[in-house]
């Protein structure tokens, strides 16, 4: 009786290990083809949108500040999952059919744009007013001052919090599996649906996310250390 139980346990463990190994590469492919591109494209687009929004928020013209405030408030006040469903399912009902991957990019970019705009705005406001005055003294316009003097300094201040946003986005891309985007977590769901070994596969997916985020955290620490050299 004991021998049978032991053999059954060993057999189950071997099957579990085989499943873990066999499912590893498909999940890595999901990360390479889905998770990482989705993160990079959404973050890049979101940062550009965030910069525009931050500048609009800092404007003295209400026709610029009001739409920016409404956009930031709406995105920050609603769940990302709801935003994702509105873009994919909601716009589809209105006749704007968008494929899953572009839909995820739009939703994630809008989300990153709203949150990152507050980081960028705060970074710009942290630059002493004397920098603006010095730029105007040498004849620079507002745009030139912003581009040549203020934004380079603000970028240095904003990199740590924006790095955290990037790492968070890597994990948030798992929500795209709900609109059938083939990324890391979606791959684990597909394999789990065939094998019914949900615990093992979801833990494996979690480990892969952790490894990716851990590597990104090391890169973030390295960047921050280099930036500290230039901070008096």
From TrEMBL:
It comes from the Bacteria. One of its GO terms (molecular function) is L-cystine transmembrane transporter activity. It is found in: Cell membrane. It holds the Pfam family BPD_transp_1. Residues 32-220 form the ABC transmembrane type-1 domain. InterPro entries: AA_ABC_transptr_permease_3TM, ArtM/GltK/GlnP/TcyL/YhdX-like, MetI-like, MetI-like_sf. Keywords: Amino-acid transport, Cell membrane, Membrane, Transmembrane, Transmembrane helix, Transport. It is a multi-pass membrane protein. Its main location: membrane. Belongs to the binding-protein-dependent transport system permease family. This is Cystine transport system permease protein. It comes from Salinibacillus kushneri.
